[in-house]
Amino acid sequence: NFGEKVASSSMMSAAAVAAAAVNAAVSMKQLEAPDVAKSYIAMDRNTTAIDEDGLPLAYDKDLIEAYWSKERGALNRRWGVFVGKAVPFLTKLTTLFIRDGKIAEKEIPALSRKAREELQDLGPTFIKAGQMMSVRPDVLPQSTLDELTKLQDSVVPFDTATAVEVIERELGGPLGQFFTSISEEPVAAASLAQVYRATLNDGKDTPVAIKVQRPDVLGTVSKDLYVLRRAAEVFQGLFERFAPQQRTNYVALLNEWAIGFYTELDFSNEAASQRRLRNMLLEKNITGVMVPDTIDDLCTRRVMVSEWVNGKKLSSASEEQIGKVTPLAQEAFLTQLFEVGFFHADPHPGNILLLDEPTESGAQLALIDCGLMASIDETDRDNMISAVIHLANKDYASLVDDFIKLQILPADSNRAAIIPLMDKALSPYVQGGGYKKYEEELKKLYGMEDGSMSSQVGGFQAMTQDALTVLNDIPFSIPPYFAILGRAIVTLEGVALTGNPDYGIIMESYPFIARKLLREGRPEIQKALQEVLYSGADSESSGLKFTRLLALLNNAAGSVSTQEGAAFVDLDAVPEDGISLEQGLKFILSDNAGSLRNLLEGEIDNVVDILSRQIFRRAIDEAVVALTPPRPPSLPFLGDLLPPSPKIDEVPLPIILPSFQKDGSLGRRPSVSVMTIREFTDIAAPKLDQDEEIFAIGIAQGTEEFVGKDIADLIRGEKVLSPRS
């Protein structure tokens, strides 16, 4: 209504005034280039080589700052270009929103086209940002995705003559000295470089791909780093003004992204990263995804030559094809992230090729463009694994601890306030389906799904109150490395959602996490495994939970039981369509279950002791009942003339017992002792206490689910002496 529009207009005006004030303050500052001391980007830190303009060929903070101070006028002009593009577009969006209360469907195609054109005009840095958003069908409407997708393939190439000049200058000789042929036009043109198909002058005409950097792109990107840094300072200033409790350093977040973008221009570093990634996937036996080999002698800072592979970009594949190969890409990414801690941080569809034919090793995908790689240390990886486990089974209390270790939350966090908000914010995400599904689930959560005015107003008020609580009362922060990690996850998840609209990366990654828990023997992983197998909020017993062990074995095989509408992992349920006994035993005895075997070594004696005692005691009871003669009959009027049959288990009998030496070894001569069967049973197989009985029941229940009732009955000690047993 009119009042709401006036209020919205006033809010927009106030925000604009605040932004202008912060921008004026930022413009007076001497901005520093991002510091790489704590960067997670994989880069060459041992060179200070510069180009003809004085720009470092590999990222160097001091050299970039020197360039900025020399080019102050050029930087201000570039900032003016950025503002001249961004402000009119944002003003248009704001006007439409105030006028209509939303962005009408009919306006979206023209706005999308305008956005794509503006990004193209702004150049490589902003084209990259558009490419990243082009893979999020859950966030943006289809017409916007169609426009942004053009940024992956429709970048205007520079002429081949210039490319040949760059190649010859970089390699130090005429083209024919290195190649017998080269395509007349580039086979692909991107924001930073373009690629030609060529054949090596190696006597075999080996087909290769030549990646050639765009002329003058280093200077443009250097100026854009300043523009983005200045924009981040403005954003940081606004957040500090309106949400002072927040501790996220948005400048540091952008710094990490900016450093990574600059590093992509160092093709020598890219070649080294590509070799490392290729070797790592081979070492980890990732057969579904390959990385092209590099021709090291022909790789420089501005030219890279690598093995040619025949395939098409995943962006050109059908949704069915994308859905089919998503598990392969996911396995490769999770291995990079959680196994090694060295991962491809830009896995968009243009950087993943669907091969025309599988390789000899079975690879169906090729991962290319390794210019942006990042490293995560082992401690952070372990904390992330713990967070995935707790998020997948809705253990938000433990998730708070994970977030504290990951420095997302401070150690003095108010758990009572955080946990309910975690449930509201994260539970819809775990269910999968991306942003659109997330929005639907949020509306259900806040009672807004029926569309009535009262529910919309009430739900919006509750949502606003929760948002204000987050902003004002919970001082969370996003660590800088999340900028690069988040980009990778967002991009990969967007690709997966194209093939499967219900895809959820948390649940899809859980089988991988389960396999890692069962395989690795490091103390941190052992601790996480113990938590899964031993803990339980509804159980007073601290012993191994056999059903959880069976469930985890099934999880590792890809079969996961869920709870709450298939949203969360049920740690205590064995899937009905799970693995067989033979498959389970093979897995436990394989190289993939080393961590589990280490943990179970301490449990084997306990399990054998408890089960053997239970089976022995009940077998004795069964034998006593079977061997006890029937009670003599009573005569009418005379009663019992004969004495009752003796209780066999109370009759003293000579029983041969082993003897032992002083050192505990078995003696040569046994001894004979007179005792009842009941006394002997209590010595040889003491009665189970309460915890042991609970443990035995759990093993029997798990065995019945996993193997069947007959063997479960044997473990329970039922009908031990029957022919069936």
From TrEMBL:
Domain spans labelled ABC1 atypical kinase-like: 150-400
InterPro entries tied to this protein: ABC1_dom, Kinase-like_dom_sf, UbiB_kinase
Pfam families: ABC1
Signal peptide coordinates: none
Top-level division of the source organism's lineage: Eukaryota
Family: Belongs to the protein kinase superfamily. ADCK protein kinase family.
Database matches in PANTHER family: CHAPERONE-ACTIVITY OF BC1 COMPLEX CABC1 -RELATED, PROTEIN KINASE DOMAIN-CONTAINING PROTEIN
Name the UniProt record assigns to this protein: ABC1 atypical kinase-like domain-containing protein
